[in-house]
Design a protein that fits this description.
alpha+beta; Alpha-Beta Plaits; 5-stranded mixed beta sheet
């Protein structure tokens, strides 16, 4: 019963069908209540059936012309409120610059996964400070937006792609193997290296370094992140524009061979 009254007072209305159902429900409940009161009144002070039927018909008419528009107005207000809440929820998990998932969304995805293994990729744009210092932050933002699109196009099918912040991007995958992801990352790095980012009067070329780590069921996300970050550091130290795997990620991909630096 409590749930029923909660549905009337705080309905969940997301679609036109939900709104129609709510209007029908409110109108139906209003009719039942109003008619019950009217029937009880007519039976208590009964004079003749014609009078009673006329009163019940009037009650139905009044309830319908009041309940329908009132429930439509209230239902639409609830619908707009819930759409606004959903929009805010999406925005709170979206990086405003690139449109990718933000750090919060990535963290929530890592915590929500119940799979035995998870692969974390951290990718960093090489020497991005030089891009900002040379061309300015506006062009730097365009570079990040372009890199974000290219990264999503290559990795979306493997899991959740997002921006951790600054020039760092990430992939969280619970469905793909380390080998599948590394193959995709290798292609991604080649595409980024060969694709100039064109803007009026300037063509910017950048590369990326990548660290890959694996988490197993008993591990914390902090350990996973630390191992991926360390692998990224090794990639940077090894010459940039390359992929490095954590020790456990290498064990999950025994055919892996450390690349030679190309940047």
């Amino acid at each position: 019963m409590r749930q029923f009254f909660k549905t009337l007072a705080k309905p969940r209305i997301l679609t036109r069908r939900d709104l129609i159902r709510y209007v029908v429900l409110v109108t139906g409940v209003s009719l039942v209540v109003a008619l019950a009161i009217d029937v009880a009144n007519q039976l208590m002070f009964f004079t003749q059936w014609a009078t009673a039927i006329r009163s019940w018909g009037l009650t139905i008419f009044v309830v319908v012309i009041i309940a329908v528009p009132a429930s439509v107005i209230f239902g639409r207000a609830q619908q707009e409120l819930q759409h606004s809440k959903r929009t805010l929820e999406v925005l709170s998990r979206t990086d405003p610059l690139t449109g990718l998932a933000n750090r919060r969304a990535l963290m929530e995805a890592s915590e929500a996964s119940s799979t035995q293994t998870m692969v974390l990729v951290i990718a960093d744009v090489d020497r991005f400070k030089i891009v900002n210092d040379t061309y300015g932050h506006r062009i730097g933002d365009t570079v990040l937006q372009t890199i974000g699109r290219i990264t999503a196009n290559h990795l979306d099918q493997y899991g959740l792609v997002g921006r951790l912040g600054g020039e760092e991007f990430a992939l969280i995958s619970s469905t793909a193997s380390v080998e599948e992801i590394v193959v995709a990352l290798d292609e991604l790095l080649r595409v980024i290296e060969k694709t100039p980012i064109l803007m009026p009067g300037v063509a910017v070329r950048v590369t990326m370094s990548v660290g890959v780590a694996v988490r197993y069921a008993a591990d914390t996300f902090e350990r996973l992140y630390s191992e991926a970050d360390e692998a990224l550091y090794v990639a940077k130290r090894g010459g940039r524009n390359r992929i490095e795997l954590s020790t456990r990620a290498q064990a999950a991909y025994p055919h892996w061979g450390p690349p030679s630096a190309t940047g």
